[in-house]
Design brief:
Layout (H helix, E strand, L loop, with lengths): L10 E8 L6 H15 L4 E8 L6 H11 L3 E5 L6 H10 L5 E4 L11 H9 L4 E9 L3 H17 L8 E8 H7 L9 H8 L3 E8 L11 H15 L2 H27 L2 H34 L15 H7 L1
Parallel strand pairs: 1-2, 1-4, 2-3, 5-7
Antiparallel strand pairs: 4-6, 5-6
């Protein structure tokens, strides 16, 4: 090792969310370990697996790796809280100079980490993988592409297109992200919102190295709706924008009824009135429910201390 000692090297914490990934944890670390070794002269690298309530042998695989490599740690949640909440909780329960998110299925290549570090050394605060392509059906790729472009148009703050959770950022950015108290964390939206100096690294996402994906169409739809609600207040404001046209339509129908006496105009008027009021109440209810849950300020996840292994100083700080 050169003159940079462990005490003075910046700490890079790699956060790896996983749920029932028994078959890929070891293969993932086989790809990650050479990368860690290649930068260990400049950075003290720690790997923290975010065990999202796995019910298979994922934890045993991680603990097996931990016996060989002391800088491997694990946070085990009390149940499967979902991908976004596990990332959010991981940030809130770790202390580091730099943070990096990467999935254990190797769809995001560990080999890009040195490139991220080069950009950090050039002065960037946020370096993220920009997914220009991925190994999946064209229809699904198109749906993802259109969703994020729609989200960009709807969002109150900036949205970085084709951004992946696969990315690196500084402790200052981490502090800005966790300042949110959101019942549904949307990490890529938070990273876009906080600003700082950013750089995207284009890459093609690969197929999983093993195991089964935990995503399905319904889950993606729920994620998309919740993501829009987290990033945009457009639907809360939409009834105000529509109000002049609604009044104009109702006025026209009322005039038609007074002049012709046709009952269908009254029926259509009642229908238009009900649609507007019902839709407005539905949107208001959604945002009120979200605001209520945010106001409770509940933690994103609860940690299973028995199956969690962190450095003593970090564990004591989180106790």
């Amino acid at each position: 090792m050169n003159s940079i000692t462990q005490a003075t090297r910046p700490v890079l914490t790699i956060l790896c969310p996983c749920f029932n990934e028994q078959g890929v944890v070891s293969a993932f670390f086989d790809q990650l370990r050479p990368v860690i070794e290649s930068v260990s002269d400049r950075y003290h690298v720690k790997t923290i697996f975010l065990n999202n309530g796995s019910t298979d042998g994922t934890l045993d695989e991680i603990l097996g790796l931990r016996m060989k490599w002391p800088d491997i740690y694990v946070i085990t949640f009390s149940k499967n809280v979902g991908y976004q909440r596990s990332l959010d909780s991981g940030l809130r329960n770790t202390i580091s100079d730099l943070y990096l998110f990467i999935d254990v299925d190797c769809e995001d290549p560990p080999a890009l980490i040195p490139v991220f570090l080069e950009k950090y050394e050039q002065g960037y605060d946020i370096i993220y993988g920009e997914r220009i392509d991925r190994e999946e059906p064209e229809a699904l790729k198109s749906a993802r592409r259109y969703f994020y472009r729609l989200l960009k148009r709807l969002a109150d703050d900036e949205i970085l297109l084709d951004m992946a959770e696969f990315g690196m950022f500084t402790a200052e950015v981490r502090d800005a992200i966790i300042s949110d108290q959101n019942s549904f964390p949307f990490i890529r939206s938070s990273i876009s919102r906080v600003g700082f100096r950013r750089c995207g690294i284009p890459f093609k996402r690969q197929r999983r190295i093993g195991g089964q994906t935990h995503y399905n169409i319904m889950g993606m739809v729920i994620f998309a709706v919740a993501g829009i609600l987290s990033a945009s207040t457009l639907f809360l404001r939409l009834p105000i924008y529509i109000l002049p046209f609604w009044i104009l339509v109702l006025t026209g129908l009322m005039i038609a009824f007074l002049q012709t006496g046709a009952y269908w105009t009254a029926i259509v008027g009642l229908y238009v009135f009900a649609i507007y009021v019902g839709t407005a109440l539905a949107f208001v209810s959604l945002y009120v429910a979200r605001s209520y849950k945010n106001g409770l300020q509940r933690p994103s996840a609860f940690i299973n201390r028995r199956d969690t292994y962190l450095e003593p100083a970090v564990a004591k700080a989180n106790a």
